[in-house]
Amino acid sequence: MAEPIRIPEITLNDGTAFAELGLGTYKLNGEEGIAAIEAGIGSGYRLLDTAVNYGNEREVGEAVRRSGIDRDEIIVTTKVPGRHHGFDEAIASGIESNGVLGLDRIDLLLIHWPNPSVGKYVETYKGLLELRERGIVRSVGVSNFTIRMLEELIAETGTAPAVNQVELHPYFPQAELRAFHNEHGIRTESWSPLARRSELLEEEGVVALAEKYGVTPTQLVLRWHTLLGATPIPKSASPERQRENADVFGFDLDPDDMDQLSSLERGRLWDADPEHHEEM
Ligand SMILES: NC(=O)c1ccc[n+]([C@@H]2O[C@H](COP(=O)([O-])OP(=O)(O)OC[C@H]3O[C@@H](n4cnc5c(N)ncnc54)[C@H](OP(=O)(O)O)[C@@H]3O)[C@@H](O)[C@H]2O)c1
Predict the structure, then answer these.
(1) If you measure from the C-alpha of residue 156 to the centroid of ligand 1, how many angstroms do you get, rounded to a whole number?
(2) pLDDT on residue 198
């Protein structure tokens, strides 16, 4: 078997280690899902992204146990769904996820969507902080939060989340939000970093740049994320594509080429503006 790829680490604002690139697991379910996630760990992925709503926390926990890699080397992220918003509800949700994962603790727990019309994301966040106090969760973060919502969390609790996981790809580079994250020490994590394999990877400009660097379009785009200072979590069910996606740390991109990729901006691809889009 090929050597695992070494994915560099950074340090989060709470002092814990985090990876510069991780594995998305949406749709990796059942035995096939376990095998795919285990293959990812074998290729070198140490950051795994799941959620209650993906229905595969059990699979992620099982893949970690089967991998033979020291549990403490792996960073498992899961997410509290909209239907579990509220202080007590979030605590119960985290405790349940921890049981399903079966890995002693959750490394990073996120609020999956803010659901502003419900009006409970601050209470939910306080529930996550309580889980951290109790040692059930190591790091606390959010997903799909806007600058306004982050400001509210910081004002209400004095604690900036360690991570904000948001839609981010060359079609939606999120420059303003990333600048805010940088000011507050919040790590940007990119969901759908490949724009879910839309036409992005076939864009003429993307293909030409990939040729210039002697990499694949996917590798070019993932390197763009890491050089922006974001952690992409590409999902792939295929061990070959997982390896291709992780193998992006051996080249750099010129600033002009970074800008060229960012200039593909056209906005959110799925109309999921967190001020309006809600998920339960
Ligand atoms: N917080 C949130 O609200 C939220 C929302 C969406 C997603 N997420 C997280 O982000 C993760 C990634 O996002 P995503 O799954 O939506 O999209 P993505 O990672 O941008 O794209 C995944 C798609 O690209 C394909 N692919 C992967 N590597 C490839 C390669 N090297 N060449 C060609 N095709 C490739 C995959 O197919 P194969 O599997 O066949 O390779 C899959 O169809 C999710 O799995 C989930 O963990 C979070």
Answers:
(1) 34
(2) 80
